[in-house]
Design goal:
The complex is a heterodimer. By secondary structure, chain A is an all-alpha fold. Chain A has a domain of 78 residues: Up-down Bundle (Four Helix Bundle (Hemerythrin (Met), subunit A)), CATH 1.20.120. Chain A is 71% helix and 0% strand. Chain A is built from 7 helices and no strands. Chain A starts with a helix and ends in a 7-residue tail after the last helix. By secondary structure, chain B is mostly helical. Classes of the chains: A mainly alpha, B mainly alpha.
């Protein structure tokens, strides 16, 4: 129990600090590196919750896939010009509104206590002798209870991919 | 003392320290083997100067790398330039944590073992990309861009090949995969009526690309971009990249052996009468042969210290052969022997590829990856899945 709490706070500090550095660095690549730190922290939290499969996928998809593509694109941008521009555009009122709403939500949550909210049913402990691994549990939930959202998400991704190809394709006779 | 020895953390800690201490030496000798084998392909002698037949060359190389000046380009991004090779080496060595060297010798057996290795190798890519970017050189940047594109492309068929094998094994744990092959009585590469040979071949091709080896070594193509992402690196930091490269080759071959070629199981693990010929006679003969070769070498070299080294090598090989003859010791080390034997055969194949195939052009690389390997790997997944469903 003790070790769990210590690790949780370590990861929490890592996530928050990295996230803060991500939005305050002037150099985009530095921001991306700090974002990797934040994503790794989230993987750590997943591990603490006993969701090993999610932790592995978090690292493979977000760090191995998305961050590599981010860096791929960022590296083509000349950093020297980019970092001179003003970082925070004038969106003060939008930001303030978001902060107020978020603080209100969090305050409501804390005043009620965790017992009032049911985010998800905790999985019942497996029967003795039956080995269920985290991977199987995720697959079972994903392909039975949440099949429709899962398929919708994949169709959405397919649409995005086709859209990107159509936009990037050179049309004959366009120029 | 008793209490400390029985703690569940002691053996993994010792194993970890051993791997980290021994692997740089192993990597050095893999490099020597590579130079010797390539030299043999090209009818040359290879390194011959340091020690008998160049046997001490890795030590000389290591000393040279450590003593060289550590140059950081003036316009480099210092922190990332420092961190990138460390990141590559760290992740490559961390992947050894779940490597099943034998039924007894492993650091940890976690239930997402293979995912852990994939995750570590995907973080390792960042070391290459960041190193190439932070050098602030066009060659490095081009190398980094190439490696990013190449690794993202070839991770897909690699992943599909592993998923196909996992369908057969029904587990993600590395020890579990080996156990599944023992229970089935057949290596996964040959199961499913030979259909699993498709993902096996794809895994090896994509694996060569994933470790940036020839013929897929575009990120460090000498003829075009000097040395690619590590052009600006020198001394110890360059050595770290080198170590990371060979560590990831070893890890990849280890995964291939574990997932497709039976891990630490001997060939025909379920055939009882082959127990003695394969587990006792074969290793003894092998090491006697190597020892004999070293013995002949002792006669041939001229200088006294070279004779001494060769004599020690001969004795060491004979000693190892003797170890396999003792039943109690044989049980302990035979799994380790078969695992290393198979991994080294695969590494030899990697060197063979390098000596045989010319480097791909960039568009050929992308075409091979996206037009052929990915569709074939998807098809392999579907076909194997259907066959598995029909036969189960």
């Amino acid at each position: 129990m003790q070790l769990d709490s210590i690790l949780f706070y370590l990861f929490a500090v890592q996530i928050l600090f990295s996230a803060l550095m991500t939005i305050t660095r002037r150099n985009v690549v530095h921001s991306a590196v700090w974002l990797i730190g934040a994503l790794l922290g989230v993987a750590g939290i997943y591990l603490l919750q006993g969701a090993e499969f999610l932790a592995g996928v978090q690292v493979i998809v977000y760090i191995g896939g998305i961050m590599v593509l981010f860096l791929f694109v960022i590296m083509l941008v000349p950093i020297s010009e980019e970092s001179k521009q003003r970082r925070f555009a004038s969106q003060k009122w939008v930001v303030l509104a978001v902060i107020v709403v978020l603080t209100g939500q969090l305050g409501y949550f804390f005043s009620k206590g965790s017992g009032e909210f049911r985010i998800a049913d905790p999985t019942p402990p497996p029967e003795i002798g039956v080995v269920t691994t985290n991977t199987e549990q995720v697959a079972q939930v994903l392909f039975s209870e949440y099949l429709l959202p899962f398929e919708l998400a994949s169709i959405l991704l397919l649409v995005a991919m086709i859209g990107a190809i159509v936009m990037a394709k050179v049309r004959p006779g366009a120029e | 003392m008793e209490e400390i020895l029985n703690s569940p953390y002691v053996f993994p800690a010792i194993a970890t320290a051993l791997i980290i201490a021994v692997f740089p030496l192993v990597a050095g000798y893999i490099v020597l083997a590579e130079r010797k084998v390539l030299a043999d392909f090209q009818v040359r002698l290879g390194p011959m100067r340091v020690g008998p037949y160049g046997f001490l060359q890795p030590l000389a190389d290591a000393v040279k790398l450590l003593l060289k000046e550590d140059i950081i380009p003036a316009a480099a991004d210092t922190w990332i330039f420092w961190g990138a090779p460390v990141l590559s080496t760290f992740t490559a060595l961390t992947a050894f944590a779940v490597m099943p060297f034998s039924d007894r010798f492993y650091v940890a057996d976690v239930n997402i073992g293979i995912l852990f290795i994939l995750a570590m190798s995907s973080i390792g890519i960042l070391g290459l990309i960041l190193g190439g970017w932070s050098s602030n050189s066009k060659y490095s940047l081009l190398g980094a861009l190439r490696s990013a594109a190449q690794m993202v492309s070839y991770e897909v068929p690699l992943g599909f090949a592993i998923v196909t094998a996992l369908m057969v094994a029904q587990t993600l744990s590395m020890q579990g995969i080996v156990q599944a092959q023992y229970d089935k009585g057949i290596w996964i590469a040959f199961s499913n009526y030979g259909l699993m040979l498709i993902p096996t071949a794809l895994f090896i091709i994509a694996g060569v690309a994933e470790t940036n080896r020839a013929p897929f070594d575009l990120p460090e193509a000498e003829s075009e971009i000097v040395a690619g992402f590590h052009t600006e690196y020198s001394g110890f930091r360059f050595a770290l990249y080198f170590l990371a490269e060979y560590a990831s080759i070893f890890v990849l071959c280890g995964v291939a052996v574990t997932v497709f070629f039976g891990g630490w199981l001997r060939p025909f693990a379920n055939v009882g009468f082959l127990e003695v010929p394969l587990n006792v006679i074969f290793p003894i003969l092998l090491f006697l042969l190597i020892g004999g070769g070293c013995g002949v070498g002792t006669m041939r070299v001229s200088q006294a210290y070279e004779k001494g080294i060769m004599a020690v090598l001969t004795l060491a090989m004979l000693l190892v052969a003797a170890l396999f003859a003792i039943p109690a010791v044989n049980v302990l080390i035979i799994g380790f022997f078969w695992f290393l034997f198979k991994v080294l055969i695969l590494i030899y194949m990697f060197i063979w590829f390098r000596g045989t195939f010319p480097r791909f052009r960039y568009d050929q690389l992308m075409q091979l990856g996206w037009r052929y390997l990915i569709p074939i790997s998807m098809g392999g997944l579907v076909v194997n899945g259907v066959v598995l469903l029909l036969t189960s």
